[in-house]
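Section 3.1: Structural characterization of target chains.
Under the original work plan, the team committed to producing a structural model for every single-chain target entering the pipeline before any wet-lab resources were allocated. The record below documents one such target. The sequence was received from the expression subgroup and is listed exactly as submitted; it comprises 398 residues.
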Amino acid sequence: MVSFELSEEQKGIQKLARDFANQYIRPWAAEADLEPTPGKSFDWNIIRKGSELGFRTLAVPSELGGGGADLLTLCLVTEEFAAADPGLTVAFDQCWKFSRLLVESIGDEQRERWFPLFMDDPECLLAIGITEPGHGSDSFGLVYGPKIGIQLEAKRDVDDWVLNGTKHYIANGNIAKIYFIIARTDNAVGIDEGCTSFIVAKGHPGFSFGRYHDKMGHRNEVNAELIFENCRIPDRDRVTPIGQGLKFQSDLAKGSHVEAAAIALGIARRAFDESLEYARNRVQGGKPIAGHQSVQLMLSEMAMLVEASRNFVWRTAIRGEEEPFEPHYSLLCKPFVAEAAFKCAKIGLEIWAGMGYMKEAPMEKIMRDAAGYLHSDGSNKVHLLKAAQFFCGLTQKH
């Protein structure tokens, strides 16, 4: 029998995450969202406090000094954080995803140099550079071919690699301290054979930052351009075999998509919670609007979507720990929950009516944040196409 009963340890971490989110993230998020200059409102105090409580290193195995959390536990924490603010949640989520790369996907000598930098610095955030100005879904592996996808160039020069090009929309943009970069090392073949991955520190010569991205929602998530101008990276910081840079995408697949879905779940839950509270207190027609059947129908639909999404996230997280890993579950989970969150936000906006359209009300921000996950972590339609390739037996790649 399949059981979705949480362990006492998971319940404890879930409560700790909820308390942290309510004390530190939620009171700050709404005002920070209104800051017109992208990146200016980011609060390092929240990151430092989260590090103190063990959240930043939650995905690191306990024997290495981390929280040892499995995927389900990470999703529990993600939902709690995202219900307070999905943008700030991404700063932590990037650490959960990419700390696994530091532990599992790089060489022993590299791990000895890079892993302590992450563990010992309470402000050390992680990021990955995949998306480029001219290449988004192209880099997701639906179609392979010369000059399709990633174009940031890496050329071998004796014991170095010289990188030139730009990454954009990068989460944790210029606030991370360690970056994984997937670059094109051979344009005569597809990205499945022509990309290689590297690790680079903030401040490395030739590596700088461009503009912040000024977004409609997720205002508290820092996204920025990464610029490489004759950036020389030693071969010892090449973290995949030459031509196998997409291995990182495979390594991330178990957690990346379901954690993104958990962020969308937090948005959906917040939409429902705010709408239910408003409906219980807003009086029209001589009684709270929660007493009107039309509003009850909308609330029930929201509750249905939240519950279905949570079940999908939990089951996908559990399957992500099983072997053999079946990637289409996580590929299906993210678009389902993202669409559910967007629908919950829309329904909530109807329940709040005119007041919901005001910036002083929470639904306006929730609607903008929900829209972000229609494309964040990859377009929903691309996820569905990629999933179909797997369950139809059309691909075995990445």
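The chain has three domains: 8-120, 126-237, 247-391.
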